[in-house]
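Message: Just now I want nothing more than another pair of eyes on a protein record. I am handing you a single protein, as its sequence and its fold in token form. As I understand it, each token names a local backbone shape. Take your time, and here it is.
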Amino acid sequence: MSKQVVAIYPGTFDPISLGHEDIVLRAATMFDKVILAVATAHHKKTLFTLDERMDMAREAMAAHPQVAVVAFTGLARDFVRSHSATVMVRGVRTVTDFDYEFQLAGMNRELMPEVETVFLTPSAKFQFISSTFVREISLLGAGDDGQNLVSAGVYKRLLAKRAAK
């Protein structure tokens, strides 16, 4: 019997975008189980709380039973090992992303040589999306700005944040 391959896709997901969804769903076709690991992000000021980010990610992945959404804090290494994962998934859109992710993959290899990092590029229609752009466009824009960058549930939450500001 072969061992189940578990992949971790870590990130802040503030908020989860259609680009993130594209990456995790494509990873789910490659691995037996994908854990979308939502970081507490103690080093960043996030727009959404951890609970809100978890809710949005769970909603986005609800129709995909091979994808679990789990919060984590601390080093990704410890989270990966605690879930017996052998793959870490990272999304890269640009050369700048790749440069950072390449360095991170090297550090992760040093910390956990038993885990491989797999880089996935988003589908062409999602390559320009970043959570930073999503937040700025949605909070500073008007009307339906940003609606085509996130799922309907995420967009509704962004509109509520905009109305509260």
Summary: The two ends are 55 Å apart (CA to CA). Residues 126 and 157 are 20 Å apart (CA to CA). The longest strand covers residues 33-39.
